[in-house]
Structures are given as structure tokens and as C-alpha cells.
Amino acid sequence: MIELKNEQLTIRVAEKGAELQSVKDADGREYMWQAGPEWSRHSPILFPIVCSVNNNTYVVDGREYHLPRHGFARDAEFTVVSQGPQKVTLALHESEDTLKVYPYCFNLAISYKLEGNKIQVIWHVENTDCREIHFQIGGHPAFNVPGGKLEGRIKLDNEAPMTTLKSYPDGSHDMDEVPLEADMGIMEITEDFFRNDSVKIHKCQTHRAMLVDTNGEPAVTVDYKTPVCAFWSPYGKHAPFVCIEPWYGIGDPRGFSGEFKDKPLMNHLLPGASFMSRYTITIG
User: Fold this and answer.
1) Residue 148: which of 214, 230, 222, 198 has the closest Cα?
2) Could you tell me which residues are beta bridge partners of residue 107?
3) Are the beta carbons of 142 and 281 closer than 8 angstroms?
4) How far lies 170's CA from each of 95, 234, 251, in Å?
């Protein structure tokens, strides 16, 4: 386990999955979900897919491949390539095992950087193949809800009416849009809010999500530039956390059976090209 620390925050990152597993303030207060029977993860990296491909199967150049939900990076062993007192970078590249399920050569680097009360989470994908590669990437950080139960509010940076993708209890979705259950950009987080699995806001309608405490003060703020941000807590388990998930990608819509490269919200890299983006977690 890797630990980074400054005067305001202490974070811990696991080499398995390059997963951020703990964020504590100077008083020792934990802000991240510490895993448990309701959900066994903390903040998995989603790569090379976000959500699911239909029947865990996708097609590249007419050949079928199989990937589980959210891909393989979250369960892979990353290598630490650089580490300082307040920044660490971990990397993963293709292997015999990954090539069986994802037929591309790549370098994936995940960096965490402390800046005061902020954590910069930086994604870097490089195409080391001799052909164009296609991928999706996303974050899935789970934050403890102030008060210790699944009752709270998330304030978005857009007070206008917004839409979300139509989702279903089995976790699937289609690309139809339905009104977002929000009032002036405020979503009331309850068990029922997640009755249709995750809530997926797309088309860049929002770039900031603030989890507020019972006094309306920000506990955790996530800033992102991604085309999609999803919100999730496991329905029916009364788990006292909510995930705020910036995504460059989306799962297969119901009925999709085309080529992998033609999935909605797919990212493409020519040989030698690279992709970089980040999101920021602010505590307090």
C-alpha cells in the first residue's frame, strides 16, 4: 500500500488496480467507503470498458472477445513507476492475458497527486500498437455519506433541468433520455434514487458534483470534464456511500451488437498517440 501525505490529507493507494482506497483529513476522518459486504471495492479504475458489453461479449474485426463488467484494470497488478511525497504514478501494459480479452497493445498510467485539500486523479493512455486502438476509461470512487446512512444531497453545477439515460434495474440502459430527478441541480440521495441502478448524466451537462453534509456544507466535491458522470449506490443494501463516477464512455445500450469501435462514446487512438485527462477530488 502506497501512502501520500501533506498537512491536510493522507491517502492510500493499492498497487492492485491502482485503486485509491483511503482519504483522511488532518483529524483522521475517513471520506472513502472502506469496502464491506455491500460492495467490496473503494475506487476501481474502469478500463478498457465502462459498464458492460452485452452478454460480456464484443466484436473486433469480426472476432468475438469477452470482458466482464468495467474491464480488467481494476483487478490487475500495476507497477509503481515513480513516487514522491505527494505524487505517485502506477502503470499497466498489455500481457498475454490481456491480449486474449482485449486485442491491443497499450500503456495505461494512473497518477495521484496531492495539492492542499485536493487530489488530482490523472489518466494517461498510450497506443503502443501498430494500429488504431479503441477504449473507454472511467473512475468509480465511493464516498461515505455524511451522517452514516444513505440520506443526503448532491449539488450539481447546473441548476437548469437536465436529463439522464433511461436505465433499468438489471443495470442495462438505452440511449433514450428521461428527466433527471433534481431540483435546481440538487439531487436527493435516497435508497429509491438508485432503484434503476446508476443514474447516468451525459452530454456534458454537468462538470461538478458536491456531496454536502447535513448543514449544507461541502464534504466532498468532484470536478470533471468527462462527457458522462454517473451516480450509484447498491440498491436494496442500505449502504452509506455514494459513487460519483466521471466516465469517458458508456456501456452497450440494449440491443447493440456492432463492432467495438462503433460503441457509443468510444475513444480512438492512432499508433503513437496518447490520451490524458483528470478529475479532482476536493475534501471539505
Assistant:
1) 214
2) 93, 126
3) no
4) 32, 12, 13
- How far is 67 from 57, CA to CA, in rounded Å? 6
191: cell is 435508497
Phi and psi at residue 184, in whole multiples of 5°? 55, 40
According to DSSP, the residues that pair with 281 across neighbouring strands are 119, 222
Question: What CATH number labels 2-283?
Answer: 2.70.98.10
The cell for 218 is 461541502
CA distance 192 to 19: 28
Query: What grid cell was written down for 158?
Result: 447546473
| 123, HSE (Cβ side, Cα atoms, 13 Å) | 25
Each residue of 248-273: pLDDT tens digit? 999 999 999 999 999 999 999 999 99
φ/ψ (deg, to 5) at 135? -160, 165
* Tens digits of residue pLDDT in 69-99: 999 999 999 999 999 999 999 999 999 999 9
List the domain boundaries for the chain: 2-283
Cβ atoms of 210 and 155 within 8 Å: the answer is yes
